[in-house]
Design brief:
By secondary structure, the chain is α+β, with helices and mostly antiparallel strands. Helix content is 29%, strand content 24%. It starts with 31 loop residues before the first helix and ends with a strand.
């Protein structure tokens, strides 16, 4: 676009058309036709120049580099100093050998100048090389900065590495601070701070576009691409690894794309994909994603929180059951000790006496049964002796019974019976406490397993959240985030609304994925319409003219909630974006 057709018939620029009247006669014999064409040429160094007679090149301080159009030279115009004013199209502003703290260039635009001839309405800057100090961790160009002033459009301050980038500057419709109403000036400047390790170098090609040129960028477009495919990057994006912030703050500009012919038909869609990286860089990292605004992480953390609450409840129940069991064990031990203390010292003898008494009772009962059977068998022939035998046997049973009762009373004194009763009660309480403890232990084990599982899932989701997409402008942690209509009874929802893609974002009007999921704003570490998506996808838009907007706020730090201000989490090491575009 800005090669051999940058000027001439396409732009209508004829800056040397009036030079012939004051050029030396020996160089002015037959150059009018050559001067009137004033075409762009490409030097052997691949620099863009203007095809003019050698005398004209010398007059304007140019550097001849090869021939063009038979008798003319390819005149490369380069300025390698500070404080200069240029008026010639296709001029290169190069960094001087010795750099001061401030270096500026003035672009003077005036159709009355011989070398311009027509009204210049736009200036295009091509950064052939551009390397100054990097931004600080907050994304500010605090050490080195490049500024543009005097243009009609807003041009952001930039720093870092920007070779291959370009800018369109709209020329004001009226002059400011100039003696001639038709004269305007645009100022380029570098401010360089103390940074011994920085390698500062630049080579900026200044192209002047006349009114009516077919290469003019649309209004409010800082960058303009006129091919069906290509690559677009945010300023200072580079494919380099590391954790340094490369995204610049206070960026707010439009990037426009001319609608091209595709198979002889106007394109009706433009698709964007993250560019491939080979050196560890991030092709898309605008606003560091966090678990606070990732649906999967929020759901996983909510489940882990619920399981943690259940585990805490189970732990409390287990502790209570343990305490009850310990008390029951103490009571049981005390009862056991009381039984031991109440047991007579001659318990063995007393128990033996009980056994003897029980044996005597059984014998007496057996003798009674035998006597009764004999009496019954005798019937009416029973003798008085048989009747007396029954009476004597009954007396013997009563005596044996009394002896057993006495033996048992001796072996079981009241204090022992009371101690044994207390022991039985303590044993029952201990058994109940043991059962409750076992149940509490089982519940605790289940709760601990559930928490271990959900905690591990939350950790994985939180880690994955740092490699996820964000979309839209806000995100609210509503109860639906937990995967259910209403929160469970043990969960306090506490909805929180965060600003997501609200402060730093890439705007693709009508952007949609292959499944027609549509959103306009994109940020995070993946370009994906799905909030929380773990991979970048191709995003296409049918809205013409094709345009995207890049916006960053003034800080990488957290945004604190206040009146009419939504909170946002802090950013870390954002890089900006690199996208490949294709019109279809």
């Amino acid at each position: 676009m800005f090669g051999n057709n940058a000027v001439g018939s396409n732009h209508g620029l004829k800056p040397f058309s009036k030079v012939s009247k004051w050029m030396p006669s020996f160089n002015n014999l037959d150059v009018s036709s050559v001067l009137s064409k004033f075409e762009t040429c490409t030097a052997a160094s691949q620099e863009e120049g203007i095809c003019v007679p050698g005398a004209a090149c010398s007059f304007f301080g140019g550097r001849p580099s090869g021939s063009c159009n038979v008798k003319n030279v390819c005149c490369v115009n380069a300025v390698a100093s500070c404080g200069r004013t240029i008026t010639l199209n296709n001029t290169y502003w190069q960094s001087p050998m010795t750099l001061p703290s401030s270096c500026s260039l003035t672009i003077k635009l005036d159709p009355t100048l011989l070398e311009q001839g027509q009204e210049i309405v736009q200036v295009r800057l091509d950064f052939m090389s551009f390397s100054i100090g990097q931004p600080n961790a907050d994304g500010n160009c605090a050490t080195d900065v490049f500024r543009v002033s005097g243009a009609d459009n807003t041009v952001p301050e930039i720093c870092g590495d920007n070779a291959g980038q370009h800018m369109y500057l709209d020329v004001p419709s009226t002059g400011t601070g100039m003696t001639s109403a038709s004269s305007k000036e645009i100022y380029l400047s570098f401010q360089l701070g103390a940074q011994s390790s920085a390698s500062r170098v630049w080579n900026i090609k200044v192209s002047m576009l006349a009114a009516g040129s077919k290469y003019l960028a649309p209004q409010d477009c800082l960058q303009y691409y006129t091919s069906p495919t290509g690559r677009v990057r945010s300023f200072n994006w580079q494919d380099v690894g590391g954790t340094a912030t490369r995204q610049l703050n206070n960026q707010n500009y439009n990037i426009c794309f001319r609608t091209e012919l595709i198979n002889r038909q106007r394109a009706n869609e433009m698709c964007l994909s993250v560019c491939p990286v080979q050196n560890g860089g991030d092709a898309f990292l605008i606003t560091t994603p966090t678990a606070a605004t990732n649906p999967a992480a929020i759901a996983a953390n909510a489940q882990a929180a619920r399981d943690a609450a259940k585990l805490a409840t189970a732990q409390t129940s287990l502790n209570s059951a343990q305490s009850t069991l310990t008390t029951a064990q103490t009571t049981l031990t005390s009862a056991q000790n009381a039984v031991t203390a109440a047991t007579p010292a001659n318990m063995a003898e007393l128990q033996a006496a009980v056994a003897t008494a029980q044996s005597n009772l059984k014998l007496a009962q057996s003798n009674l049964a035998a006597a009764q059977n004999a009496l019954l068998s005798a019937g009416t022939n029973a003798t008085p002796e048989q009747a007396q035998a029954v009476i004597d046997a009954r007396t013997a049973v009563a005596t044996a019974q009394a002896d057993l009762t006495a033996a048992q009373a001796a072996a079981n004194p009241p204090e022992l019976i009371a101690a044994q009763t207390a022991f039985v009660s303590a044993q029952s309480s201990f058994n109940s406490a043991q059962s409750a403890f076992n149940s509490a232990q089982s519940s605790f084990n289940a709760a601990q397993l559930a928490y271990t599982t959900s905690s591990s899932a939350a950790s994985a989701a939180n880690a994955a959240a740092s490699f996820s997409s964000s979309s839209g402008t806000t995100f609210t942690t509503t109860t639906t985030t937990f995967g259910r209509q209403e929160p469970p009874a043990d969960v306090k929802a506490g909805d929180v609304t965060y600003g997501v893609c609200l402060y730093d974002y890439l705007l693709i009007d009508g952007g949609r994925d292959a499944n027609n999921a549509v959103t306009d704003r994109y940020c995070g570490s993946q370009m994906n319409p799905a909030n929380g998506g773990s991979n970048s996808v191709q995003v296409c838009t049918p809205i013409k003219p094709f345009r995207i907007t890049y916006h960053t706020d003034g800080t990488e730090g957290a945004v604190t909630a206040s009146a009419n201000v939504l909170p946002a989490t802090a950013d870390t090491a954002n890089t900006g974006f690199c996208l490949d575009f294709q019109e279809r």
